[in-house]
Please model this.
Amino acid sequence: MVKILATADWQMDMVGGGLNSDAREYLSAARVETIETILKLAKEENVDVILAAGDLFEFPRVSPEATNAVAQVLQRSEVPIHAIPGNHDLYGSSSVWNTPEFRAIDHFHLHNEQTQTEISEGVFLHSIPVKSIYDIQPQDELLEDVSDEDGVHIVMAHAHDVAVGTFGAHEDGVKLPIDSSKVIGKGYSLLILGHWHSWLEVQEHRV
Model:
């Protein structure tokens, strides 16, 4: 069985409105240290793969300093990383994802199209990247039924789980709905979501 570390919403290069320059530098350094902690934890826990569910950056195009800092840390990872763009860091020809720094990381795999990837023997990752912040189609509708297929099937998306409830003002500008009950009903064993910057235990063993 594969061992996964799930993460999302690092929001690197966030400006930090209202903060002075010293506070912004401190915040940026703390965010980089957090990524280092994630990679350290992955190594200590013998994780097989890291799944990063979107919004690793605050913008599609970020400062060279943020690009370099994050790329240098990820380059040192001993664990493969699979990631998707979120609503903040949409994929594009001039986005951070197409910089030489990120293209040089062999073990960093960005899924900028909907894909199915075998991340371990018999374990399949179904990635749903954000293509547009205006997309209101339920993401569960993009998934085929895998109930009769062999293997373990995992979904990684950047979305609001409408099976849990509404998310107030966070939904006003960007909807990105997904229904976890329908995902499970289609035979998927695990749904990993970015987008909502908190956690909620919706039932036992479901956070």
